[in-house]
């Protein structure tokens, strides 16, 4: 199969998975990076989509001629991000001329690297602001929103097919094609689930899925996601295991000679034990019934897993969001993850109401916007949004969260607890008035007037 084979329905879709101008600029950036053959720094995110998109870029650059010795990889420390001052200093210490960021999320502010370094951001998280001076290629505004792995795959495939760069032998190209395809599949299913339907405009992965099977790819995804969830937060282990794997099946062999692969299994067991310890904590609800909160205290990054688990089963007439808050991940901070309550009736009802308020026909498939919901609650407490800063309400509209000081999180939750369901106040007044009326009639004068 030719490299980068796509569904035929994509032929006229020039602005997917990102605007055509951004895709073209990203490819030009990568070609210039290869041509310079100088220090290059990759900044991939820690999950399956981030690791796979970063490795798609890595393998493509090497195949196109960039020396592996000129490529460095940096992962922010536990609980931090590439925008934090300490991480900026660490990034600058590499002295890279080219910096490529994949799946890290975006925000406004100063450039990631000061000086002459050029920066490319490849991402799909919702944002309208980006670091100064960065070249941005984002899928966030081109529905259906592609993952960062799919976006990286789409950027690189035309470069590897073209004849104006070194592409190596046919056998090497075929092996690269196979690798990039399963990385694209794993990164995408890591975000969208193994049951994801690869319908247009997503690339045609039928041959890849037939060869490796969703079962193998799904197990490999779970394993490479495990180290970053442990208290040790050894993301580099997952990167090395994925980088050195010959096939996805290499990652799921518990008797592997690779210490990195064996560590994947140990990490998965650690995470499972911690989830089992914390998952049965009972939820509490916001005053308006829209948010369910599960509180845990764990040094492991299991709050997204628990939020996801509860989101598929927790029900409520008004329930829209399931939130898991973890005050044990980083001292003095609360890390929280939010997911749409799939089993709750509130998500669909709220979506239909928002559509109606906007003068649009009701739509039973309307999406709950968690970012907007979190910001709306925060706005009820003067100064709270500013106090929580840029690490609040990050990510996607349907999978958001944040890292905030514990005292600020408690103020946020208090605002949620104090909230009332829309119409509840008027209903309460009506019932109160009705009771008062009945009480007023039950007087001596009232009885004397009865016939």
Label this structure with key terms.
11 strands, 13% strand, 451 residues, disordered N terminus, six-stranded mixed β-sheet, disordered C terminus, alpha/beta
Task: Report the C-alpha radius of gyration, rounded.
Answer: 25 Å
Inertia-based shape:
globular
Q: Pick out the low-confidence regions.
A: 1-12, 351-365, 440-451
Q: Walk across the major sheet and give the strand order.
A: 6-7-8-9-11-10
Q: Provide the β-strand percentage band.
A: 5-15%
Derived from helix and strand composition plus strand pairing, the structural class reads alpha/beta
Indicate the mean pLDDT. 88
How many helices? The count is: 16
Your description of this structure?
The chain has about 450 residues and is α/β, with parallel strands linked by helices. About 45% of the residues lie in helices and about 15% in strands. The strands form two sheets. It has a six-stranded mixed β-sheet, with helices on both faces. Strands 2-1-3-4-5 form a five-stranded parallel β-sheet. It is globular and about 65 Å long. Residues about 1-10, about 350-365 and about 440-450 have low confidence and may be disordered.
């Amino acid at each position: 199969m030719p490299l980068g084979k796509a569904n035929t329905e994509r032929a006229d879709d020039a602005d997917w998975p990102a605007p055509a101008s951004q895709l073209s600029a990203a490819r030009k950036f990568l070609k210039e990076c290869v041509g310079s053959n100088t220090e290059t720094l990759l900044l991939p995110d820690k999950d399956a989509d981030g690791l796979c998109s970063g490795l798609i870029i890595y393998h493509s650059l090497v195949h196109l001629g960039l020396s592996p010795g000129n490529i460095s990889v940096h992962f922010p420390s536990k609980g931090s991000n590439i925008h934090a001052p300490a991480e900026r200093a660490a990034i600058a210490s590499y002295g890279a001329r080219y910096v490529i960021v994949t799946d890290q999320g975006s925000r406004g502010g100063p450039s990631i690297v000061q000086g002459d370094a050029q920066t490319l951001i490849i991402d799909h998280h919702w944002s309208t602001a980006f670091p100064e001076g960065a070249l941005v290629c984002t899928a966030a505004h081109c529905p259906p929103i592609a993952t960062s792995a799919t976006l990286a795959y789409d950027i690189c495939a035309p470069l590897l097919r073209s004849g104006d760069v070194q592409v190596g032998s046919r056998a090497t190209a075929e092996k690269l094609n196979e690798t990039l395809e399963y990385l694209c599949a794993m990164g995408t299913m890591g975000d969208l689930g193994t049951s994801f339907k690869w319908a247009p405009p997503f690339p045609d992965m039928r041959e890849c899925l037939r060869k490796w099977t969703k079962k193998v790819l799904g197990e490999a995804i779970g394993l490479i996601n495990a180290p970053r969830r442990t208290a040790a937060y050894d993301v580099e282990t997952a990167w090395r295991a994925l980088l050195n794997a010959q096939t996805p099946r290499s990652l799921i062999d518990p008797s592997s000679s690779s210490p990195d692969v064996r560590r994947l299994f140990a990490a998965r067991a650690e995470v499972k034990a911690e989830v089992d310890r914390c998952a049965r904590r009972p939820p509490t609800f916001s005053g308006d019934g829209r948010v369910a909160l599960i509180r845990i205290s764990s040094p492991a990054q299991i709050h997204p897993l628990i939020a996801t688990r509860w989101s598929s089963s927790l029900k409520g007439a008004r329930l829209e969001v399931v939130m898991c808050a973890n005050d044990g991940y980083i001292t003095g901070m609360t890390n929280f993850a939010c997911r749409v309550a799939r089993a709750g009736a509130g998500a669909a009802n709220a979506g239909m109401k928002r559509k109606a308020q906007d003068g649009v026909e009701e739509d039973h498939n309307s999406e709950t916007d968690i970012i907007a919901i979190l910001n709306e609650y925060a706005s009820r407490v003067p100064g709270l949004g500013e106090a929580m800063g840029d690490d609040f309400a990050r990510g996607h509209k349907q999978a958001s969260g944040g890292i905030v000081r514990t005292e600020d999180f408690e103020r946020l939750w208090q605002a949620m607890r104090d909230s009332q369901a829309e119409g509840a106040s008027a209903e309460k007044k009506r019932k109160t008035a009705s009771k008062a009326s009945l009480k007023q009639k039950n007087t001596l004068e009232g009885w004397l007037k009865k016939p």
